[in-house]
Amino acid sequence: MGSVVGLEDVNFPTEPKTPTPTMIFPKIEPKLEPLDEFTPQSINPNSNFSYNSGFRNTTPQQQQNATSSQTPSSIEAGVHSEYNRISELFQTAFAQRLQRDGDVEANEDSGCRAIVPVSNDSQVSDIVITRRKYEKRSSELVRVTDLKPEDERYFRDLIRKTRMLYDSLRIFVNLEDENNQHLGSGRQTRARGDLKASQMMREHGLWLNRDKRTVGPIPGVLVGDLFLYRMELCVVGLHGTPQAGIDYLPANQSSNGEPIATSVIASGGYEDDEDAGDVIIYTGQGGQDKNSRQVVHQKLEGGNLALERSMYYGVEVRVIRGFKYVGSSSGKVYVYDGLYRITEFWFDVGKSGFGVYKYKLVRIENQPDMGSAVLRFAESLRTRPLEVRPMGYISLDISRKKENVPVFLFNDIDNERDPACYDYLLKTVFPPYVYQHVGNGSGCECTDGCGNGTNCFCAMKNGGQFAYDTNGILLRGKPVIFECGPHCSCPPTCWNRVSQKGVRNRFEVFRSRETGWGVRSLDLLLAGSFICEYTGVVLTQEQAQIFTMNGDSLIYPSHFAERWTEWGDLSRIDSNYVRPAYPSIPPLDFAMDVSRMRNLACYMSHSSSPNVLVQPVLYDHNSVSFPHLMLFAMENIPPLRELSIDYGMADDCTGKLAICN
DNA sequence: GATCCGTCATAGCG
DNA sequence: CCGCTATGACGGAT
Predict the structure, then answer these.
(1) Same domain as A68, residue A203
(2) CA gap A529, A526 in Å, rounded
């Protein structure tokens, strides 16, 4: 039997310790070649820059196309002129550098030639948050290293809070716009919540990682983290440009006058990309018309030059993959896949017949599994679990058809099969007296559906507005939420019935060495989306006493940390923001028995930095002291990542939920 | 009905 | 300040 304590220790510091930022520049020492011997090979001995030695990765047919589609300025002439241009570019850059720091010392023993550690007297608190309005991006290139576990937790929490705020703002802007459309503002296009949210956060200095240009990992961002919008990447500082695929420190800001790439987004926007996971053939930028067709040769400038320089100096780049994924609103997600090294680059003939730069990106070893691979793996698990993982499945539905969607039970570690042995409890069982005051007149009378909540009694109970948007995403955590229910006149399709409809995603209870049993999803869980109810049998005071005397463990809902307060909290943007206190409910003082009947929720692990929140909800009765405990995602949770709740436990209180291990 | 394409409103940055 | 960009949303066509 493992301990229930989940992902992380309970306590983490509010103040970060100082990690050591490692300066990449200014001290660099690439070998300087005499300018008259300047050749592509001397620019970079590692590169296979193929200037006139034929075409790489190009079929004869493509070459034919290339030459035939392009006369009289043949592809070869194009390459020649491009090469001349590059030579000029480098001559200028090297001349400038010679003039400036002709006496830099070589650093022979460093694995990465460009990287020379310097003093660690920078303040880490400056690394992350920018408080001034519209501050320009910094030109200081750093790599953050030596993060201690408490630092990791601090930055993780910072990223988490930042993303929560971004999502809240985005949803609010979209909803407000939708309401305005209802009123007939006459505007044709919808507001871009994704852009508005980032703008508001920028105005309040809430963008992260803007006062340093960070090479390598962004503190607090894990490999596999999911983003739904390009601007979200800008806000956390993972990738700084809203549209361009290559982010780099431009030459004029660089201490040695050369650009350095920091991150790339591979989303298949270029026909010549090849993506084999660990190895990417990445096409440089430029040369496309507005229809994304390659119409001229690419040039070795901007991001293309930066990638080449990053290769030369052995500087790693972050790779974010964007790809289609049903379930996200735009049909696309961005996944942080970790660090890659550029090992080769060359000028090639693209499918269009025009010259493109190509870069071979190789994933650095010993990193967590690629998020994009996990997504694909989860996809295959959803459709054919036994084929993909023939061993380990104990049950393909522990709910025995009670849930809309089967709940898997997986254990490839030991022989435990406990969760298969319990009665599956779909909904919490309340004592009969909570239903006393239910009856006619307790629900709304919106026969045609509740619309946007105008004149809906249930909306009024929530303070005039529904708690969800039209996609069923939780707008803001509240002391309690009133959903429409069996005593309402509205049809079951009413969108104020999100949590009572039960599980909609594919979940799996799994055995883990760290957390005993755990729960993970095979679907992407969007931030704010409903996960499941935390079910149990609610006990009367007397029953609870007997249970306690017998030594049985109970769930006390009042012990859950009130994480709902964090969801939709706009206080960092809106100084007038007040945390929702309405509708107010008395402290929850009931106990729940899960010793015989339970659902998947009680297998979720504890974390003090959880990705799931507990939100009280009422729909089938009006006793505010006995709400359903509904679980919602606090962030975009990638498939197969363990779900965690803040049980409000201290480190040494693992016994409380040991029954579920 | 899913998917593709054109169009438009965008915002950061070099 | 201007032009570029591996965006995102929508509406119409296939």
Answers:
(1) yes
(2) 6
Nearest CA to A657 out of A530, A556, A577, A542 is that of A556
Domain that holds residue A273: 20-375
Name the nt closest to A135 by C-alpha to C1'. Answer: B12
Enumerate residues 6+ apart whose C-beta is below 8 A from A454: none
Q: Among A506, A511, A532, A531, which Cα is nearest to A521's?
A: A506
- Same domain? For A351 and A441 the reply is no
The total number of structural domains that make up chain A: 2
Separation of alpha carbons A192 and A282, rounded Å: 30
A293-CA/C14-C1' distance, Å: 22
Q: Which nucleotide is nearest to A303 (CA to C1')?
A: B14
Q: Domain containing A579 — which CATH number?
A: 2.170.270.10
Quick: pLDDT tens for A248-274. 999 888 888 889 999 999 987 777 788
What does the alpha-carbon distance between residue A219 and residue A500 come to, in Å, rounded to a whole number?
A: 38
Query: Does the CB of A268 sit below 7 A from strand C?
Result: yes
Nearest residue, CA→C1' of B8: A189
Protein contacts on strand C: list nucleotides below 7 Å from a Cβ.
Answer: 4-10
Q: Where are the beta strands (DSSP E) in A90-205?
A: 141-145
Residue–nucleotide distance: A229 CA to C7 C1' (Å): 8
Query: What are A465-503's pLDDT values in tens digits?
Result: 899 988 899 999 999 999 999 999 999 888 899 999 999
Whether residue A317 is found in the same domain as residue A425: no
Distance A187 CA to B10 C1' (A): 15
Gap between the Cα atoms of A247 and A356, Å rounded: 18
Q: Is A421 helix (H, G, I), strand (E, B) or coil?
A: helix
